[in-house]
Amino acid sequence: MPGFVGRAAEMKLLDRCLAEVRERTARTVLIGGDAGIGKTRLLGRFAATAHESGAHVLTAACEEHFGDPMPYGPLLEILEVFGRDFGEDDEAYRRLVDFFDRRDDHLSGPQQVFVHVRRMLQHVEAPLVLIIEDLHWADPSTLDLVRHLAQCRPEQRRLLLVCSYRSGGLARTEPLWQLLAGANFTRRVERAELEPFTLTELEELLDTGSGPPRPALVERCLTWSEGNPFYAEQLIAAGALDHPENLLLPADLQSVLLARLSGLGDDALRVLRVAAVAGRATSRRLLRRVSGLEAYGLGAAVQECFDRQMLVTGRDEETYRFGHALLREAVYRTTVRDIRVDLHTAMARALADDPSLSLTEGSAAAEMAGHWYQAGRRPEALAAAVRAGEQAMRTYAFTSAAVQFERALQLWPRVAEPERTAGLSHVRLLADAAESARWSGDTGRAMARIEAAVAEAGEERPDLLERQANYLWETGSRREAGRVYREAAGMLDGRPASAVKARVLAAIALARLHAGRYADGKEVADAAMRVAVEAGARAEEGRARNVAGLARGMLGQVTDGVELLRAAITLARQENHIEDLLRAYANLGLILENAGDLREAADAAMAGLAEARRLDIGATTQAMILANNAGVALIMLGEWDEAERILTEGLLDRPPAESVYPRLTLAELRTARGSFDRARELLASIEGLELNGDPRFLGPLHTIRALVALGRGDLPEAQREVARGVAALRDGENSLERLRLCAVGLRCAADQAVTDRAAAMRFGDELAREGFEARPPESTPETDQLLLVCRAERQRLRGAGTAVLWGQVADGWTGLRRPYEAAYARWRQAAAGGGREALLAAHREAVRLGAGPLVADVARLGRRFGIDLADRPYGLTEAELETLRLLCQGLDAAGIARTRRVTPRTAQTQIHRLYQKMGVHTQAQAMAKARADGVFT
Ligand SMILES: Nc1ncnc2c1ncn2[C@@H]1O[C@H](COP(=O)(O)OP(=O)(O)OP(=O)(O)O)[C@@H](O)[C@H]1O
Ligand SMILES: [Mg+2]
């Protein structure tokens, strides 16, 4: 059985009531909730903790009955357990047993029974928890007993009565309903209604110990179980969710669900069938129109469904929803095909006549398409699917659009004159299907569809090629993408300016930028801008500005770059071009990060991510890139937990080729945290992927590999990795990445110098020559800072490291808001004799970040220097801090000496020293300062 999930509030309520019972005040708690929601599990858990805390627990349950329930069923169970637990001597117990055994009538009525039960329970020494489960099946006498126990004076009784019941589907006529409606009763009890599990709770429920379940599976499980753990477990156990399109309703579950329909009137059943055909929700008016029931009969039938909570109100009074998604499924499947077809046809017709019958504005097309399809009317279904897909694209509902286009493709060959019926060509349909698939995160299908479109088109279609190249790019096939872009460019060469031409040029420019050829890329991007303006293509102009902005940013012309990118954002928004919108945000974040404006960079990336989520396209490549950029900036800012969250979310279930960057970034984080194995796993997952020489990939890749080797103590491997990185970046223009790599390389060399000075010097010189002296970078705050780091490491390598220089490095990083790098430098500063404060600062920051390896390095140094790293205020020692505490309590030196069992002289000295450290002169000042700084709060 999986561990216990959630239910914190309910446990707290029960614990509180038990505490009150301990104080001799009786309490009653009712736990309501749907079948399978977890009432029994909750009470079992509570019973166990109550028992552990010394309470006595008695549990009984009402049984499901067919015909008349047995009077006092649970009480008999309680008596049995009571006799076993406490022996048979209790007077009240014996009279009750006699009464039930022999039907003696010396208990003259129910009141007498209740009084004896109460007495019997009162004789128990410990606080008593009495659990009665499944009150919805209780006989009237048991309900009376519950009422009696709850309403009786609570003082001096140590009884906690807890009852569970199914609240869903309770009819007004049932006795329990009447009990719950009683004002006198409800005033004396506390009630809790168990809510369905959230997504996170379901995830926990489904984690059977072999790692968390796939997010997509959890999502699907949430959809079908609606957070009900019983349904969730059943669906998973039966493998019912393994096929995304098709739910395999397990037979057991289906009969459980259908059992709920027994006793429903014919009209009510008809209403349910119509509603099931309509879908998970339906409009009141559509139900009325299609059900064929007279107004009065309909009203009564709907009421019946409502009373039993088969139907509930949807988001407003005008919509009905099934009480549970699985109930709809079960009803639908058990409706005979003829009736289903008739109902679907009637619904499609009704919607065609009056689209306002549909659920939401604009959804009529999709609903109609669905009904025609289910009714088996292919031509109507084809036309409706295409319309519905187009409409869904306009409203960014890409997943729905993809469903419709795929359905249209499937219908196409089975309709007589498909092109005329659908109102578009097959090639166009393929391209639309590709685009919708791509935006709903299914790149594989996008690729297949666009390839089919290109092949089928036969003529020169640079627009299709441009799409294809785009998808190739996104799936990580950079080289192939470049080839297709050039092919498209070849077709366009010599043709007049056009939107497609601008788009293709922009793509080529971008490819150059990714290959680290910034000046070149800028030139092509500017050309794209001119073509777009000439062709009057606003969206393409936005795209070109986007790339041109990125190029400038990479060339260090940040202000110009930011301006272009902001313009690109505005244009993309005006043109409703979400791809460009997200790209512009991503690029803006990137160049701000390169310029050292980390906070703004993180904000820009997260703003883009928020847009993506708002449009419900959080699972696309674009969103993933944004998540990565946000993660990178947050790591630098030292907000590691947030970074980790965003990065792991961004990864979802994506294949490595489509999630190279976040994998790399996450590996960097794990390395800094000392999880070398997990970092290596991530690196291995992207081993050998083709990225066409992108320095923004190669730089971090080699840097992180080197850091992993360094962390594992393999210096030679770390150096080899740095050398490989330097070689890979040699021809590019990205000096930032090269410098980052050099700094790590020099660090390795300096470490090596301890054992092999000569070799280390050689490596250091080589790095200097190749890495940064040969081609000084354009100056940015980060490159300046990195050069300083390289200098400091090189001095360390020569054995001439100075605390002053490392202090400068640390200050520089702090100024750039890079706490981790600053902490590293502080550690070096301390190691070079820079003092206790530096080491404490390094320790504080490394601990806050959770940077395990650095914490260990700092601690080692602390031990060597005999420095206590505990973070006490004003650098006080343990003894001084204690003395300060006593001072703040108003004790004088003599008092402190007595309390601390030291000589008055020692106390005096300590007081004197702590005044010095605090920079005060009197006890009053010390007290005031400690209070102002919140030292003892
Ligand atoms: N908090 C929980 N943590 C883990 N599993 C749970 C939790 N709540 C319920 N489950 C699982 O869900 C299933 C149904 O729970 P349970 O039997 O408690 O439901 P119930 O509300 O008592 O249903 P019924 O009304 O049919 O008695 C069980 O397999 C149980 O283990
Ligand atoms: Mg139960």
Explain briefly what this protein structure is.
With about 950 residues, the chain is mostly helical.
| pLDDT < 50 stretches | none
The largest sheet has its strands arranged as: 2-3-4-1-5
Radius of gyration: 36 Å
Instruction: Give the amount of beta strand, in percent.
Output: under 5%
Give helix % range.
55-70%
Bound molecules: adenosine-5'-triphosphate, magnesium ion
What is the β-strand count?
8
Largest sheet: 5 strands, parallel
The structure class reads mainly alpha
Quote the distance from N terminus to C terminus: 44 Å
Overall average pLDDT: 87
Domain HTH luxR-type: 869-934
Protein name: Putative ATPase
Organism: Paractinoplanes brasiliensis
InterPro entries: AAA_16, P-loop_NTPase, Sig_transdc_resp-reg_C-effctor, TPR-like_helical_dom_sf, Tscrpt_reg_LuxR_C, WH-like_DNA-bd_sf
How would you portray this structure in words?
The protein is mostly helical and 937 residues long. It folds into 6 domains: 8-193, P-loop containing nucleotide triphosphate hydrolases (Rossmann fold); 199-248; 258-448, no CATH class; 460-590, Serine Threonine Protein Phosphatase 5, Tetratricopeptide repeat (Alpha Horseshoe); 732-739 and 756-865; 873-932, Orthogonal Bundle (Arc Repressor Mutant, subunit A). It has 48 helices and 8 strands. It is flat, with a radius of gyration of 36 Å. The two termini are 44 Å apart. Bound molecules: adenosine-5'-triphosphate and magnesium ion. Magnesium ion is lined by residues 39-40, 133. Keywords: ATP-binding, Nucleotide-binding.
